[in-house]
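Quick question about two entries, pasted in order.
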Amino acid sequence: MKKIAPFTIALAFLASALYAFSAAEKTADAAKQGAAPAQPAKAEATKEPLVCFESRKGASEITQREIKPGWPNVKCSPTTGAALWYGDPYEGTVPLGKMPGLEKIPEGHAVVRPRSEKLAILPMCAVACHNGVGPAFVPPALPKDKKPVPIPTMEGLLPALKDLQHGRGRIWCLDCHHTTKRNMLVDNYGDPVSFDQPQLLCGKCHGDKLRDWRDGIHGKRIGEFASTGRKRWFVCTECHNPHNVQDGARNRGFAQLQPEPPPQLPRGMKDARHELVHPIPH
C-alpha cells in the first residue's frame, strides 16, 4: 500500500493539473466567443441605415430594416438606389380615401403612403409666409395676368419655379395650390385637396390619365395581384415632379432608368414559381 501511495498522489496531481488546464482553455474560448461579436455589433450600430427611393428620387424614400431575421422590408438597387423588392408593401400606408369610380373596392384594400408629413417646406408655406391673412393674400391683390412676381426665396427653394414648364405657360401657382391654405391643393370647385390625394387635382386637366390610373393601366401598384386584393397605390406626384413635368429635350415626366436583373430571392424561398400562378381562376 505504501508503494502505491506515491503513484496515487502523482496521478491525482496530474489529473488536477489537466482539469485546471482544460478549464482555463474553456474560459479563454468562451471569452473569445463573447468578445468576437462585440466589434461587428459596434460597427453595425454606427452604420448608416440604407435609404432607397421608390419611384422618383426625393419624392418617396424608404429606409431598409429587417422585418424578421433575413427578411428585409425592402431591397435596394446597388446601382441606382431604387427599391427593387418589398418584404412589406403596406408599411406606413393609410386608406386611399374617397375616390370617384372606386366605390366597388372593399374598404382598406386601396392604400397609399402619406407624403405631406415628409414635405420639408410645406409647414413653412402654410404658416410662415402664406397664412391666408391680410391684403397681400386675398384674391384681389393677386396678379391679373397670372404671372407670379419672381421671389428669390421661392426660386431658391424650388428652382424649377423660375421656368415653370407645367402647362407651358397656360397655368400658374394658384391653379393648383389653394389661395389661402397653402398647405393644401385645390379642386375645380375651389375646395382644398390634401397633398396625399394629388390625383383629385391632376384629374382636373388629365382626365384620361386619371381614368387609366384608376383602372390600373397607368401608374404603379404593389401588393396582391388579384383584382380585389389589397394594394398600395402610388399617387401622381410620387412618379412625376409637378413643377418640372416637361424638362427641355427630354420632354418627359421622369427620366428612364437602366433595367437591372431581378433581385435575389429572400432566404427560404427556393424559386419564384408562385408568380406563374394566376390569382384569378379562369
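Here is the second entry:
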Amino acid sequence: MTFQNCIGGRWVPSRSGKLFDNRNPADRDDLIGRFQESTPEDAADAVAAARRAYESWRLVPAPRRAEILFRAAQLIAERKEDFARDMTREMGKVLEETRGDVQEAIDMTYFMAGEGRRLYGQTVPSELPSKFAMSIRQPIGVCSVITPWNFPMAIPSWKIAPALVCGNTVVFKPATLTPLSAVNFVKVLEEAGVPPGVVNLVTGGADVGTLLSTHPDVSVVSFTGSTAVGRTVSQHAAPTFKKVHLEMGGKNVIIVMDDAQLELAVEGCLWGGFGTTGQRCTAASRVVVHERLYEAFVDALVRRAGALRVGSGLDPSVQMGPSVSEAQLATVVTYVEIGRQEGATLLTGGSRLTAGAYARGFFHEPTVFGDVRPEMRIAQEEIFGPVVAVMRCASLEEAVTIGNGVTYGLSASIYTRDVNRAFTAMRDLYTGIFYVNAPTIGAEVHLPFGGTKSTGNGHREAGTAALDVFSEWKSIYVDFSGRLQRAQIDTPEL
C-alpha cells in the first residue's frame, strides 16, 4: 500500500512525488508500505492548515474536545491487537511490548480526556475590596510534534493528546522508520471527530523537521530524540522564541546493593537492559553492583542474558527482537568493539546474528560487559542497543557518584531491602525518574515523565505536567468596585 500525508483533513501525496519504503527490521523482504518523502513545502502547507483550524478549535469548550479524545481512546482499545502487530512489523519489538505501547496510548488519551473537565486554574482573594482574581490556562497555537521510532504510538499520544485538550492544533512528523503507527493514530483521531486541520501528518526526513522547528506560525515544538538533534531543534526555535519541549537521551543506572534480593535484581536488570532490544531512552545500560554481591550477580545475569530467545517479534516465543535499522545495528557493533578495546571483559554475546533467518534482519546478541570502569565510553555514552555495562562499587556513596557521573539524568533505580539506603539514593541521584526494587523502565501516564541535564530542558511529559507545555497561564482581575483601585498603593483602611 501507498500511504499519504494528512493535511487540512485530506489525505494527499507529497509535492515531491517521491516515496520511501517501510520494511520489517526482522525481515527486510517484508515490505510494509510506501510513504511520502515530503518536502518543507508540504510541511508549510500543514502548518497553514493547522493555523486556520486553530481559530475555531480553540473556541470549542474543553469538555467537548475531551469527548473526542475519549472516543479516540475507545477506538484504539478496539484495534489494539492490529495496531500492535503493525508496530512489531515496522519497528521490531516483541508483540507483548507493542501491546504495551498501544496500551500506553490508550491510557494517555483517556487521562487527557479527563483533563478536559479540569484544566484547573486558581481563584485567590484580592488585596483590594470588590475585586476578583483568578488564573486560567489558554492555548498557544500550532504545535509541531516530532517523535522517535521506539515508541511510535505511545510518545505521539503523550504530546498530541494534551496539545488537543488544551485547544491547540498539531502538525505531526513521525520517525521515517515507523510511519504506519503514526497513520493509524491520526486516522483514529480523525474517525473520533477531530475536525479537519486540527491534526496534520507529514512524513519525511530532517528537512521537514527543520521547517517545523523554524516556521514563524509554529508556537510550540515538542521533540523526542537524540540530544544532538534536540540541541539543533532548540537552536532553530530560539530566534522566534518558540516554546520548546525536549526529551532526549539517557544513560540510566541500576544500583544493586549487597542486601538486594538477587533474583529480583537480575530479573529487573534483564528487562531494563534488553527490553525493546535496549532501544529505550530509559534502558538500564549501566548496572553498579556492590562488590560483595558482584560475582553471584554477574553469573546469574550472564546466564539469563545468554538464554534470551532472539528473533522476529511476531513469534510469541521470542523475547528480544532486532535493532530497528542497519544503522542502529552498526552503532551497537561499534560500541561492542569500543568496549573490547577499552579493556572491559566481554561476558556474553558481542556479535551480530547472521545465520539462517537472522540474515534477513538486524539482529544482535544480548551482550554483557563486566569489569567496566565508570569512565569507559560504554559506561558514558548512549548505545541504544542490547549492551549492558556492569561495574563494582564498595558503598552506596560510591554507587551514587557513579550513577550521577554521566551527562544524562533520566532514570535510575536501586535494589535494596534497607529503607534508609532507598531514601538516600532517591534523594541523591539527580534524575527525573527513580525506582526502588524495580528497573529503570515502567513509567505510568499519570506522573511526569522526563529528565535532567542533557536529557531534557526542564519540561515534562505525561501527567498534568504535560499541560504546562501546551498552555500558557493568564491571570485575570475583575474590579467591580466602580472606582480606580491601585494594587500595592491603595491599601484599604482596617
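Reply: DSSP finds 14 helices and 23 strands in the chain. The longest strand covers residues 27-36. Hope that helps.
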